[in-house]
Amino acid sequence: MSSTPPHWLGDVESKPAPEPLNRVQALVNTVELPEGPDRLADPDDARPWLVATGLLGPESDLRPDDLALVRGVREGLRAMLVHNSGGPAPTPSAFAPLRDVATDSTARADIDERGEILLTATGDSVPARMIELLLIIRDAQRDGSWARLKACGNDECQWAFYDRSRNHGGTWCEMSSCGNKLKNREFRARKRSGKSG
Ligand SMILES: [Zn+2]
Questions:
Q1: Which residues pair with 118 in a beta bridge?
Q2: 14 in Cβ contact with 173 (< 8 Å)
Q3: Of 46, 78, 148, 155, which one is least surrounded by beta carbons within 10 A?
Q4: Looking at the DSSP assignment, which residues form a beta bridge with residue 162?
């Protein structure tokens, strides 16, 4: 894993996670729920993003099953972030794509010139490279930053944001589109309950 600036993040995050945890945040935020554009729906859109984020080697082929796997991992990660926000624990099926990555990929240890131990994926395919996300999560779980990566509490949004509040009590992503979704939901709720205005 390199420490180059995250030029690949593309989207401007209002609550960005620190590196390298922002790689996990960036994957979760490749789709705008509930019906927004999905950067990982089409191979021609997905390939440059996957290469830029290091999840696919530049010379490697994007295989037919890769996008389904990476979208499955994305939603498994989102389920974990919902749990970080105080929501229910992920179901076994949410963890299944992450377990596939854990089972099917391997990491190699290396030592840099300062003596720091690095762990990197041993392959260039999408399934091989995704183990780097698991390694990032493992480190973040140990240093406590993982608990601050959350999914927005608006269940129609679930955008991944990094909670920098002192008491870890942040709930909302604060995207302007999220606010609109919330207003719409409140409006519908008021209509259902028969109130006006
Ligand atoms: Zn939101």
A1: 110
A2: yes
A3: 155
A4: 149
CA of 157 to the centre of ligand 1 (A): 5
* Strands of the chain, DSSP E: 107-111, 117-121, 149-151, 160-162
Which residue shows structure tokens 């679930």? 158
- pTM of the full predicted structure? 0.86
Structure tokens at 24: 């996990």
φ, ψ of residue 35 to 5 degrees: the values are: -135, 20
CA of 31 to the centre of ligand 1 (A): 12
User: Under a CB-based contact definition with an 8 Å cutoff, are residues 185 and 34 in contact?
Assistant: no
Long-range contacts of 180-187, Cβ-Cβ distance < 8 Å, separation of 24 or more? 181/154, 181/156, 181/157, 182/154, 182/156, 182/157, 185/154, 185/156
Rounded to the nearest angstrom, the distance between the alpha carbon of 11 and the centre of ligand 1 is 15
Any residues with CB less than 8 A from the CB of 43 and at least 6 apart, and which?
Answer: 62, 67
The pLDDT tens digits of the residues spanning 93-128 come to 999 999 999 999 999 999 999 999 999 999 999 999
CA of 158 to the centre of ligand 1 (A): 6
